[in-house]
Every structure is written in structure tokens, then in C-alpha cells.
Design goal:
DNA-binding; 14 strands; alpha+beta; 4-stranded mixed β-sheet; 6-stranded mixed β-sheet
Length: 725
Amino acid sequence: MGDSEEELEEDDTEWRSSFLDSAAPAVPAAAPGPSLCKPSAATSAQRVILHFDLDCFYAQVEMIRNPALREVPLAGIQQKYIIVTCNYVARDLGLTKLMSVIDAKEKCPQLVLVKGEDLTHYREMSYKVTELLMSYCPLVERLGFDENFMDVTEMVERRLTQTPDLNNFSFTGHVYNHISANVKASDHPRMALGSHIAAELREAIHNKLGLTGCAGIATNKLLAKLVSGAFKPNQQTTLLPENLCDIIGSLSSLRKVPGIGHQTAKRLQALGLVSIQDLQSFPLKDLVSEFGGPSAQRMKNLVIAVDDSPVTPTGAPQSLSDEDSFKKMASTKDVLQKTQQLLSSLVERMNKDGRQPLTFRLTIRRYSPTNKWFSRESKQCPIPNHIGQKIPSGSRDDAVLQLVPLAMKLFHKMVDSNAPFHLTLINVCFSNLQTRGAAVSGKGSITSFFSHGTSPRKTQTSSSQSQQNGSSQAADSHCMDHQFSMHNMVTQHTSQMTVTTESPSSYEAALHGSRWKQSSVVAVKDTRLQTACRAARSDSDETSNTVTHRLPPNVDPEVFELLPEEIQVELLSPAYVNSSPSTSTSSSAQATVPDVPHIQKAPSPEPSQPFTENIEGAVNELDPPCRATTVNNQRPLATSAFPVREEGRLSFVESSDCKFPVNVDPEVFSELPPDVQRELMSEWKQQKPVLKVPSSRKPGRKTKDRKAAGKGGQANSLFKYFKPT
DNA sequence: CTGGGCATCT
DNA sequence: AGATGCC
């Protein structure tokens, strides 16, 4: 989650008066480049911007998934060795965000830990929140998973014209540096209305999704964000323009300014600038020479609380990525395995998205004792269309199979696998996401919001004026005041589901149910393979000859015989023993909570297996029947030499016209270095012990794709990000 | 013993 | 492709 600090230090210094005037949007005429601060803002009416920040978001989601955690003294969300967040009970005992597990347990030994490396549930809930907000007004911009900006200017203006009596009106929630009750709403009618809207939206989020959070109400994003945390859990604060300098002055250092990150703060410090005032009084031209015009001006503006950046509707993500970090990864085999694992879940997510990625990127982080911090390297390449198409079309395992070699090719562009290497992170990413199909206008009421939504939010070189105009249009046509109850129809469907544990894969599972026909055919062959495999294992000397004829039809015997004997043996040998405990932390949590299935009560004896991601999510599922089916899916290791399974992620055997390594693009494959080819072969013959459980699903229905219905309608894939399936 | 995931800009 | 920033 977020930065470790966010509390505002109340530190009223007396610098303010001199900047009150300059806070007006009037831009210094001397600005060299195209200024971000454009005069048009002065002409447009005062904006009302909300910032929502959910309380300890991951912890809340886990508490919803497992209410037992609420009563439990503490809960922390653990990712690797870090507590990324924890509930407020834990915070009261001194825990902070991003604290190491060691420290955390030292402070409170009874700490209950929940693994949070799989973000699926958080992501889903996150989009429900955004969707809910959008149902009131489309101008919602996401910031991470737990924050949203919202431009409610239009909504406020409408209410303003329809609110007869502004005098019987007060602020809701806190007013920064004021006693709320003492502030006359009539002096700041827009802000007051904004505070009411914020309160209603927070209430809606709580009622429909069960989440609490804070809100800030101000005239720009910077201020709204800064003020939202003034009173912390589950409260809201309005910042009046007259107090704008107070809050910016309360920041203890430049680093606290959103937009001034670690590196920038360091460079500023090198210039002798540490406090807000330092930067305010620093000559612009000197700043320009260090950072360039635009950056310099932007920072200067931020520090006087000027922020004209528009609330830009976020829309569907422009990239999907999946990553895992670990202490050490040093073999090509492990890289291959991990890459395949990451790709499996990424392809699944991509498939749900519905769009087709045109670009693939592989990112790694190498270990280096000195530069232990982020130095990531990446390589990307286009995804051949015939591969990319398989993702939205639903041939997900095919897609994975063909993407793995692609990924390995990129890997070898960065890493010489002949020399020793030491990776600590692998990331796979789809980008350049293309909406397929002609399809469909918004038939649903919401979809119309999104019809323009996925359009690229180009770099906003244009002044925010045009953006403002654009948003006004959107607001005019779509902004609905909740008091007109329009939102009910829209938000209904989000309301229930979330409190009861919702199987993350139920939707997918339904799809699988109709999709494994091929695989079940294959399963028969699989049986034969097993026997072949066992035979080979018991007597590995006679491999080639004895076994060749038992190879599945999709493996060209001739090719097989050309392989070195050791490879043949490997291909028929039982699955690798997965010997890398390094990647996951076996839990050290000593949970004291009874009857909480997905809490780790004791370290699992085996290193938690490669599959994190959705699979882990499935295992974690609370739904008993789902769990039950999960248990039996462990197969004997020797199950199969070639990856085939009824309902697993991979089915290598598909159509009989496949030559050699099955669905893999021969061209791509042949380009690979020999050792990689060998690794691939080895990997492919390996049966993953963990199966994705499609939950209980009747495979009977070969429905056209019940997704086709849902999916045909989604030329704009944004929809699914907001639609609980 | 520093997550995992997204965006923007150059 | 990398750097930086946000959560």
C-alpha cells in the first residue's frame, strides 16, 4: 500500500500571508514553457473536488471476507515479509504500514496475519467503489486501489440552483481549522454542498459495499487529498479556501507534497530545500535550470496549493501486470516456471478484461548488494496476432503456451543464462490493450459512460479548459444527483455480493465448465501417459525405444528420437521436485483465531507452492464446497508427463494436427537457444501439482459462452471493471 | 527482512 | 526502456 507517512502534522507556521495572493491562478508571465497554470481556470467557476480514501483498505476487505477478523484484536495484511497494512486495532498498538513482520510481531505477538499477495479481491472491491462513485458522476479518477478523486462541480451547481434555503444549512463533517458548527454554509455554499455530497457518497459506500473511508472536500485535487486525512478513520474534512495556506503549511517537508517523491525530494534537498517555505522562496529560474520548465513550475504551484490538474476519468486500465518477488532466482528453469505461472493468471485476467493485448513486456530486478533498491530492466515485444487473439477468444492455455517462449526470448535478451544470475523479481505485463469487435453501443445505462472511457487519456498538453468543457458535457448528460434516485438502478447490482464471500472464480469457473471438452478427451490419453511415465521412471535406461510409441499422438516420435537421451528421460520423468522454498514465506503467523480457514494457523510444511495469484485465492476461498473440491485436486506427482489435465490451466494437447511441442509456435520455438528449448520441453512435460479448481460446475452446458452475451456487449471493456460478474 | 500494481513522461 | 511517482 501506500507510503509510510501520511498524517498531517499540525504545525502552524506564520508564513502564510505572503502567499495568499499568489495562490490565485494567475500565472507568472515569465514562465518559459507552456504553463500548466492557465488563465482559463480563473474564468471557470470554482471547482469542488472530492478525494476519497478508504480506511486500511486491504484489511477492510479481509474483514469483509472473514468477519471473524473484525472481533479479533488485530489483523495485518502480509506480503512477503512486510505488513502492508493492518486494521486500526493493530495501529493502536503501534503498528504502522509497511512494517516488517519481525517488528510487527515484536510489538504485538498475538498479531494475526493474512496473506495479501494476491490482489484479486482488493482489485475487485476497488473497482466496485469506483463504479459506485461513477454512478453518481462520471468524473472519477482512481489513485491506486483505495483512493478516488471526484469532480462534483456540476452536481454542486445543480444543487445550488435547487436548494432554496441556504441559511438552514450547515457543513457535514469537519471543517479544517474551524469548528464545523461555527462555519456558515452560506459563506461557502459550494463547499458546504460538497461536504454533503461527500457524506452521502461515503454512506453509500458503506451501505452498499460495507467499507468505511475518509473524504476531503476542497477546490483542487492537491488540497482535497491533503485534507482528507486530517481526521482519520472514517471521517471527512472540508477545506475552505481561506485555510488553504494552513494546510499546505502544515506539511513537515517537501516530501509530503503529493507529486514530490523520493528522488525529487533528494534533488531538492541538494539545493538546500527541505521545507515548504524553502521551495516557495526559491527562485523559479534556479528551479527551472535544475528540473526544467514544466516540472519546476508545477512544483512551485504545488507548494502554494495551486493545482489545476483536472480530474481525469480513469477508465479501464491501460496495462495489466502480474509480478512476484523473491529472495533469489538463479536458474532458467525456475524463471521459466515462474514466468509461466505469472502468465497463467495474467492471461486469465486479460481474458476477463476482454481486450486483446498487442504488447508483452517482461521485467526483472537483479540482485545487487549495493543497489538493493529498484533497478528494474525490461524488454517488450509485439504479441503476434495469432497468439494475442487467443486471449480474448478464450483459448487461454494455448495463449500461455505460446507466450512462455516469447517471454523467455525477452528474458535471454536481458540475462545471459550461461553466467550466474540472481533475480529478485519477475513481472509480466500486457499493454497496448485493444478493444476488439465492432460491437455494441452502450445498451446498458452505464456503458454509455464508458463508451468514451477507454479512449486514451492522451498527455494533457491541452489546457484544462478543454478538459473542463469536456467534463462539463459529461456531467451535464450523466451526472445524476443521487437525490433524484437515478443511481439506484445502477448501483443495485453492486450491493449484495460483497459481504458474503464471493467466489472470485465463480464467473470464470462457469466459463471453464463449457470449455474443457477437449481436455476431457485428452484426459483419456493422459491415462496412457501415466503408465508410460511410470514405466519410464522405473526403468529409465530403456526410455527411447520402449516408450516412444507410447507418446501421445501430438508428439512427433521422430522429433522425440532426435532429442538427446537425457532429454527424453527428462520428458518422461516425474515432475520436477519443486525445490524452491525461497519464494514464499511460510507463514510465521500464530493465529489465535479459531475457525478461520484462510488464516494461516501454522506454517504449512511445504513451501507454499509457486502458484500464488488466483489459484491461491481459490484455495483461500471461504466457500466450503469450493474448498472441498479444491482439496482433492492434488495429483500424484507422476500423473502425467505431458501437461494435460481436465480442468487445469494447461492443455497442451489440442488438435491432432499439432506437430511437435504442441501449440507452440514453431517459429518462435526454433528461434530459442537450445538450452531454452530444452527447458521449455522440460517444463511442459511437467505437471503442475496445483490445479485450478473450477468449483462445482456442471460441465454439461456447452453454452455458446454465456460470456458471449455478457461479452458481446462490451466493446468497451471498461464495463467489466465495474460490473460484478 | 521493501508489496504488487498502476500511471506518466522522457 | 527506463525513471519516477502514487497507493
